[in-house]
Amino acid sequence: MRGLINLLTLLLIIFVVVFFQLFLILAFMSMLIVPATWVYAQLNGQSYSFTIDQSNMLYKLNILGQWSLVIGGAIMLFSLLLI
């Protein structure tokens, strides 16, 4: 029983390490997609909302990117105030 608990703990740690890094990469890529989508919308004469509403995946990535920008900006501002 103890061996099973140790194995599950090890798998959980590996899972968290791998997927946390993937989440950070996805969040960073989403931050880059937000301004790229805005530029694309401006070049095509569309609104930003109309552009992201055309694709469900693009919509989700833009929402993640917007939140990543807000949270990342808040962390950077907070760290600058503490230094």
Keywords:
83 residues, mainly alpha
- Rounded mean pLDDT score: 87
Approximately what portion of the residues adopt beta-strand conformation?
under 5%
What is the domain tally?
A: 1
Could you list the spans in which at least 5 consecutive residues all have pLDDT below 50?
none
How would a textbook summarize the main sheet? none
Count helical runs: 3
Q: Tell me roughly what share of residues is in helical segments.
A: over 70%
> What's the number of extended β-strand segments?
0
User: Could you give the distance between the termini?
Assistant: 49 Å
Structural class: mainly alpha
Backbone shape: elongated
Could you outline the blueprint of secondary structure elements for this entry?
Elements: H1 2-43, H2 48-53, H3 56-82
Helix pairs in contact: 1-3
Task: Describe the model.
It is built from three helices and no strands. By secondary structure, the chain is mainly alpha-helical.
Give a short overview.
The protein has 83 residues and is mainly α. It has 3 helices and no strands. It has one domain.
